[in-house]
Amino acid sequence: MKTIGTIQLLYLYLLNYMIQIEEINRKFNAELLQQIKGLLPKTHTYSLGMPSVILQSAQIPDLPIELRASRLSDKAMQETHPFDLREIMDLPRAVQNPLAVFRSATHLGHYVVMTELEHGRKNFIVVLNNKPLKINSIRSIYPKNNEQIVKWIDDELLEYMDKQKTIEWISKQRSNSADVRKLLNRVAKIIQNFENAKFEDKIV
């Protein structure tokens, strides 16, 4: 009976979550269009909802995920990795259902969410931090070089991944370098052996 109850609880939780995130996603897209048109106040803060069980299983605190419009504008115009705001349509949905989540290699308490949103052949990442404020603040968002993402996997910074999609992503990476090919083979084995935390542990 306990097992059946847990499955039912998880199903109801996920159903309710899907309804909520779709509404949040719709609102985000509408507000993003306003920012693109120059009609959104610079002081506006986007809401991406509360972390999904996927994000919570990756150690991201159960706190609201927020993004300041001014920070988004600054990141989109950075010389090192500029992007068009239209490329991040559906960002809440992409963040809540990521390809992978990593611990930051440089900042303790920061988490890097790898999304399926793309800029050319690069995937957008979102950097979250919940200190000193009691929110998951998006500190950065930009398309990341694939080579660096592969290195994060090799450095065992993974907290979560969609195994099937990540395997497909790795299979698309190519290089003429023998060293890089060895790295990709090693990372493919890491992915195969990686085990995600159980989602239901976060809601029961």
End-to-end Cα distance: 14 Å
Strands of the largest sheet, in order across it? 1-2-6-5-4-3-7
**Biggest pleated sheet:** 7 strands, mixed
Task: State which percent range the strand residues make up.
Answer: 15-25%
- What's the number of extended β-strand segments? 7
Structurally, how many domains make up the residues?
Answer: 1
Rough outline: globular
Seen as an oligomer or otherwise, the chain set is: single chain
pLDDT < 50 runs, ≥5 residues:
none
Mean pLDDT equals 91
Quickly count the helices.
7
> Could you spell the SSE succession in H and E letters?
HEHEHHEEEEHEHH
The secondary-structure class comes to alpha+beta
Report on the architecture of this protein.
43% of the residues lie in helices and 20% in strands. It has 204 residues and is an alpha+beta fold. The chain has one domain (2-202). It has a seven-stranded mixed sheet with strand order 1-2-6-5-4-3-7. Strand 4 (111-119) and strand 5 form a beta hairpin. Helix 5 (146-154) crosses helix 7 and helix 6 runs antiparallel to helix 7 (178-193). The longest helix has 35 residues, at 2-36. It is globular. The mean pLDDT is 91.
